[in-house]
């Protein structure tokens, strides 16, 4: 546990991407099997421990310390793992236990025996190890490392391209001893263990409009950018899988799509659901089906899923990625024509007579679920990652509103000492109603300013959440940017924002001059 605890602490305190990669590479080099593989699985979220729940940990805490002391400590610290690590006094001899042994103990104990195992481990570990243990057990690793960054570090450790790691990943299981053996030159490269593997996706870079004059419109094809989630549908040898753009297998949540993947190949596209009118529905409707292991028949009937295809990566056993995009597009059009039109259709191309004409089309798209345009060079091959130059995304300008800060919650990781998650609202008559939450878009200096405002003007406390003073003549106005709005029965205001973030702080503006709910409702499509 000592090496893993030290790794988590250093990752949380290292903001730079290259610095995090170096820490991970050092961990892989210095940590023996199987602990290094278990640590990697924890960071990539491929380690599933279901025996420990936050409620159980809170019960353990109040066995050891006064309940009110724990409540106040948790409210001040704002993070369960950090609170437990600090407040739990060692009550037994120090233990030197490996990461794999911890996982074996928790898995072997089951839910009934997990409290005793956790109690014993917490008694014998030091403060940083206790913190790492709770993060490991609850899956709450927030150290600024994505699964792909961890795989990039693994590739760098072995001196191979990250695509080799990603195309093997779905046939692998922790602790990945065969992968480490290959990367260290002790064994041969593992064979592709899974049919229908994920192929790393190609991403676009945001368009700098100042560069348009130097670009030739004739060299590009354009298509609409739909507001769903980017997916890859892959079928091989009777195995059918649906992956998110980060390689997560989401097949279980979309059996209605999987059932119609009667092809051999790999499609890149946008996952959407159809509304009552048969057209693509807002993202909030798709969101009802995300992050589910299974989905009911009623939900599939109400929100049938489909893929709007962008690209064809494989057809039968032929890899099409080295072909120019214009050629892949022609192959895609023929390929889609043979599939079920209710489940697979084609993202239409947009004419590019000039950049001015395309800009006009971008500001007035034909459907509300379009969030902008994609520009792709006709000669671009399909390469993983985000290369600069061949593909661009040209999103619509964000919407902006002035809202009033209503609630603030403590953050996580390096922000656990700050109130950094904000709920904001707009006026409905004489009252404020919440319309969204945001936790980014501000600078570190602005974070300190908002945190001080929250502490100075708290009117109520609800655990780690504070209600702040918000009146017509006093409060903090936030200029909020967002990508779109949807009707929502789950929110008191009746609206839900897409990708809200803090655009700037309006210390100069009285809260009474913030926006009203009817202004937001005017932006919504008809019910």
Give Rg in angstroms: 25 Å
Give me the secondary-structure category: alpha+beta
Number of helical segments with 4 or more residues: 18
* Total strands: 20
Q: Just give the CATH class of one domain.
A: Alpha Beta
Percentage of residues in helical conformation: 25-40%
Tell me the CATH superfamily of one domain.
DNA ligase/mRNA capping enzyme
Report low-confidence residues grouped into runs of 5 or more: none
Mean pLDDT: 90
**Beta-strand residue percentage:** 15-25%
**CATH topology value of one domain:** D-amino Acid Aminotransferase, Chain A, domain 1
Overall geometry: globular
Account of the 3D structure:
By secondary structure, the chain is an alpha+beta fold. Among the domains are: 205-395, DNA ligase/mRNA capping enzyme (D-amino Acid Aminotransferase, Chain A, domain 1); 399-521, Beta Barrel (OB fold (Dihydrolipoamide Acetyltransferase, E2P)). 35% of the residues lie in helices and 23% in strands. The protein contains 18 helices and 20 strands. The protein has helices spanning 2-13, 17-30, 35-43, 54-64, 67-77, 80-87, 99-124, 127-138, 147-158, 162-168, 177-183, 255-258, 283-287, 297-302, 325-337, 355-363, 444-456, 517-521, and strands at residues 205-206, 220-226, 229-236, 239-244, 265-273, 305-315, 318-319, 344-346, 349-350, 370-377, 391-395, 399-410, 419-428, 431-438, 458-462, 465-468, 477-482, 484-487, 495-498, 501-506. The strands form 4 sheets. Strands 12, 13, 14, 15, 16, 17 and 20 form a 7-stranded antiparallel sheet that branches. A hairpin with an 8-residue loop joins strand 12 (399-410) and strand 13 (419-428). The longest helix has 26 residues, at 99-124. It is globular. The termini are far apart.
